[in-house]
Amino acid sequence: MPRPERTEEEIAAMRERILKAALELLEQQGPGGVSTRKIADLVGVSHTLLYSYFENRAAVLQALRERYLERKMAFFDESLRRGETGDALSQVRASLEWFIQLSFRRPMLYRLSWQSVPKDPSLQVDSQSLDQVLDHLSELIRLCIERGQCVKRDPDLAAAMVFSIVNGTLLMYHSVAALGQVERAKLETELMEAAMTYLT
Questions:
Q1: What is the pTM of this model?
Q2: How far is the CA of 139 from the CAs of 3, 91, 157, 159, 165, in angstroms?
Q3: Which of 54, 76, 121, 161 is 20 to 30 A removed from 92 (C-alpha atoms)?
Q4: 45-64 pLDDT per residue, tens
């Protein structure tokens, strides 16, 4: 007797369980520790069942990235709206702080967010995600310059600079053992001071 068709709700619930398990593995073991067998073990199903929901391991990691990117873009859209009607400089700060908080709350997802999964996630940089972030920061910085909150600079270059100050340092912090000894609060303060000093 054939198994009954799964409802859309059942499919969505199982995909959610799979992604939750994958995120748990990612945070515990890094991208290399995420496998369909380990995910299946955490979910409590056979690993072949996972292929009914995701084509392969890369598709699971890509789904995690896409979820992160959707949340990031929703935050950035709201931040830009607030910057257009209020204090743009505070929204630059909020955007940079968003990366800082994510990097400490979910360091492996933070690292994965800058990688392109389909080929070799350890080597490929996701330029589309990077472009979106730089466009967002550039637009906020342009508003800051127009309102006299920031020094007159090329907004695109200024966006790249403050992005690099914060995220370049965070990527090193989470990758280089010696930097891992730096107190988190001190790092956060220094990053924001450096970025804001550059802009203002």
A1: 0.79
A2: 53, 11, 12, 9, 18
A3: 121
A4: 988 888 889 998 888 988 88
